[in-house]
Amino acid sequence: MKGGNAAVELAEARVEAERLAGVQRIQAAIRAAVDVTASPFCDCGERIPDARRQAVPNCTRCFDCETFIERQSRRRA
Ligand SMILES: [Zn+2]
User: Fold this and answer.
1) d(CA 77, CA 65)
2) How far is the CA of 28 from the centre of ligand 1 (A)?
3) In a 3-state reduction of DSSP, which class is residue 47?
4) What's the pLDDT tens digit per position in 29-76?
5) Residues paired with residue 47 on neighbouring β-strands, in sequence order
6) What residues contact residue 66 under an 8 Å CB cut-off, 6+ apart?
7) pLDDT at res. 46
8) Is 73 left (phi over 0), alpha (psi -120 to 50) or beta?
9) 59 or 4: which leads in pLDDT
10) How many domains would you assign to the chain?
11) Could you tell me which residue ranges the Zinc finger DksA/TraR C4-type domain spans (predicted)?
């Protein structure tokens, strides 16, 4: 079956564009919220990746430091 596909593709492209715009709006809002709640820098001076700060709100350590400290506290316990 051919014919009419162009209209469908156009509609799908518009839905996809709207979906992406929505995702970008949400990501921008999350980024703005994260930026005011915590410093983007770890104690070691490493910049904490935005993805990590979004996944772990208010995290103050980079992944390496977090892993290191978790390992130490587990050893102590
Ligand atoms: Zn660190």
Assistant:
1) 18
2) 25
3) strand
4) 777 665 555 678 898 999 988 888 888 877 888 989 999 999 999 886
5) 41
6) 59
7) 92
8) alpha
9) 59
10) 1
11) 43-71
